[in-house]
Amino acid sequence: MPRERLSVVVTRRLPEAVETRLSELFDVKLRDNDDPMTREELTAAVKEADVLVPTITDTIDGGILGHAGENLRLIANYGAGVDNIDVATARQRGILVSNTPGVLTDDTADMTMALILAVTRRIPEGLGVMQKGDWAGWAPTALLGGRVGGRRLGILGMGRIGQAVARRASAFGMQVHYHNRRRLRPEIEQELEATYWESLDQMVARMDVISINCPSTPSTFHLMNARRLKLMKPSAVIVNTSRGEVVDENALTRMIRAGEIAGAGLDVYEQGTDVNPRLRQLPNVVLLPHMGSATLEGRIEMGEKVIINIKTFEDGHRPPDQVVPAML
Ligand SMILES: O=CC(=O)O
């Protein structure tokens, strides 16, 4: 008799190719609209599924996991960050968690570079002039930005994405510095021509651009708090394509308004879509709606990772991208 297919519940619309493949392989329940699930819907989903496929906007906390049915054995997150999932509680309940690392590294690093360029070269301001029909022609002193080549870039979090940012930044002539929980192996440091700073404070105080590329965990919460932001040079800018929680958004907003920090490029926010309205009014701040990994190729590859994780689990093995609390 054929084996019964795994029951998989997906919480959001995914690219069509991914949904089609999931339907071919599993007994899958897809979302028919693109609204995030409510807590009630998530509760029903964890009661019903063998495998839950949430995305990074679904909070799978202890409360939701408390309702998980006996059969829920895997949470295969569609996303690299797992800060939306209480991984420790899932583990206590015997539920595996997996994510989708690697496939969004280059896209997120590209977007980091795009934000560095957008802020330092004032691209949105230039776009605004053109859209308003205000352009009066080339002028020697109009919309002068700063040259990125030669600037010191301090990368906070030198994992896969941080390293991909380092490679891009070097190609643009930036000097790469980094702070990380663990120092890179000497050969990688050499290849990236990156300078390691054990002290985050000392690095922050000397950089022209700070790029946040670490995950959001309890130990990275407000790593860039008001005290550290104050260490930045007034001419420096900060870019965040990781998670909003790493930066104290209100302190950052205050300091940019006061001219104590020169600008920011943000793809992520502390309170999700509830962006500090004052940030939106600043010409030297470039805001994007969390689109670091938003390429069609990347989103399909994320789906392929989810499928490989579920399939491997179904075949009785550890999902290749399993996340355990010790990794966080
Ligand atoms: O931010 C995107 C992700 O974590 O996948």
Automatic annotation (TrEMBL):
It comes from the Bacteria. GO terms for molecular function: glyoxylate reductase (NADPH) activity; hydroxypyruvate reductase [NAD(P)H] activity; NAD binding. Keywords: NAD, Oxidoreductase. The keyword NAD applies. Residues 113-292 form the D-isomer specific 2-hydroxyacid dehydrogenase NAD-binding domain. GO terms for cellular component: cytosol. Gene3D superfamilies: NAD(P)-binding Rossmann-like Domain. CDD domains: GDH. Residues 8-323 form the D-isomer specific 2-hydroxyacid dehydrogenase catalytic domain. PANTHER family: 2-HYDROXYACID DEHYDROGENASE-RELATED (PTHR10996), GLYOXYLATE_HYDROXYPYRUVATE REDUCTASE B (PTHR10996:SF283). Belongs to the D-isomer specific 2-hydroxyacid dehydrogenase family. This is Glyoxylate reductase. It comes from Ruegeria conchae.
